[in-house]
Write a structure and sequence with these properties.
The protein has 4 helices and 6 strands, in the order αββαβαβββα. The protein has 203 residues and is α/β, with parallel strands linked by helices.
Amino acid sequence: MATPEEMSRTERRRAAREAKQAEKENTKGKQKAAQLTQKIVVYGVAALLVAGVAYWGYGRLNTGSPGDFIPSLGNRHVSEAEAGLTKYNSDPPTSGPHFPMVARWGIHEQPVTKELQVHNLEDGGVVVQYNCPATSQECKTLVEKLTSIVLKYDHVILAPYPGLSHKIVLTAWTRIDKFNDFDEKRIARFIESYIHIDHHPAK
């Protein structure tokens, strides 16, 4: 290879251009690599954020959330003539076939038909039901306490439910919590975890 002294002016210019071009291409390569790294970081952060939100939503409705999870029986509508024919997988029900209409929100002195209350759950409601002798002072006191909680919310029902396995049962769509001792914080946490979550099938 010729030394710089032996190279003609034209050759030196050509060599300089080639060196400059090589340097330029090297710089472009570094810039592309940096841009690629930046994109990977941005997409990675976005993916983590999406995963975090999804995990939070799943956690809210499943593991770690108040009550026990009950598998969904779907959202099918049935006629009033079919009342009582559905075999629900929890008592009270937490999902499944239900009437096209809903029960009135608020305080009920009589039991609410299962097919009605399920539709309320589908609409993002919570149902608080109790089983105690209506004439006893203890039961009256319990109902008063439950009423004071339920009236704080717009999508909650309070109603008696004879035959419950526990004194108090809370239901939301695919969730149930049963206990015997009045616990205001437990009830409020259940309600606030599930109220206003719509469960209609995506269209």
